[in-house]
Amino acid sequence: MEPADPVLRPFVVFLWAAVAVAVTVGLTTFLVHLSDGADPQRLAGLLDIVRIGLSVGIGTGGLFALWLATRRQRSAEQTLALQREVSQTTVNDSTERRITEQYNKAIEQLGHEKAAVRLGAIYSLERIAQEHAGHRQTVIDVFCSYLRLPYEPPADRKRWSKSSAGLSPEAAEALAELEVRYTIQGMFWEHLGDPEKRKVGEKHWPDLVLNLSRATLVDPVLRFLAVRGLWCEQLVVHGTADFRGLRVTHIASFVKARFHDRAVFADGIFSESVALIDCTFEAGADLSGAAFLGLVTLIGCDFRGEVDLGGHSSRGFAAHNCQFDHGLVLRGGKCTLVMISDSDLQGTFVTDDLEVSAGLLAGCSFRTQPDRHPKIVLVDDLRDSDSYWRGVAAHFGIEFDGTMMST
């Protein structure tokens, strides 16, 4: 493959010069020979022709000189562009090298025994992510990984936060570690805020995934976050989990998550289907006013407080093999289908003002008689229902094998 801009070799210039000299000498010799005894009038005509030819030659030489100047200019511009590219590459390499050094140092400090050093590492990582958008997901993943480290918060942490006087060294260290975790959770709140609901300004880190699988959160206040994805497999939350106004643009998944206190997801927006599988809520779960653009599926969950889905909207709500120790409230909600099967409802089942196209309660046990809704059918067993509802069960990811429900 030939180069796009071939190099002008020196012998080409010498060849052009030799040709020009040869033509000049030859023409001069020819004119001298012709002038001997020639007719003056004819000689004058020949001289005019030669003069015109020389003018054309001079013009051609001027064009050649212009072409050479253009090549020199282009070569200079290419050299300058190459120098700029090399300079920019050097700057980028230097920047990445500096970021890597800062990142590695911060990661090392995250494992330091002193909480103050760990806090400094967190702020160093935050600065890297703030200044270099390409590293933001990595920094968020590091924060989530730190929260996966084994940790059991002190039960009397609220009393400790008011006064740390007289604490033992172990208690003081536990309180310091709690402060480190509060700081990371504060980073989530500060940088993952929903710009449509909060003033986040330049600190906003958009379109990131929050992977809280196997993490331990303590008293998280994460209102009005906006993330691309939320993964909560085996998440453990101590204290109230305040996710009010959460917006998830893609997947939100909760598998074997445990909430030791009240969980609040009220007024959230979930762009795809949401599944809660084998989760435990030791207190109430508030999903009132939430908007689910897909399906809401609860499978094998244990709710030890009231579950409030009042005013929510979804394409469909299904609960299978779930335990509801207190009320299940669907008051004022809007959903196409409601299906609850093989579940134990010990509290009230509230459906007043619920807008639903069709509903089914199959194989459920009730402590009190549930509200009767004109669109919701009550049967003792899903096998007593028609094929339509078995198809609905499969649509929610609940398979029916002819003898029992399985997930």
UniProtKB/TrEMBL annotation:
It comes from the Bacteria. The keyword Transmembrane applies. Keywords: Membrane, Transmembrane, Transmembrane helix. The chain crosses the membrane at residues 12-34, 46-69. This is Pentapeptide repeat-containing protein. It comes from Allokutzneria oryzae.
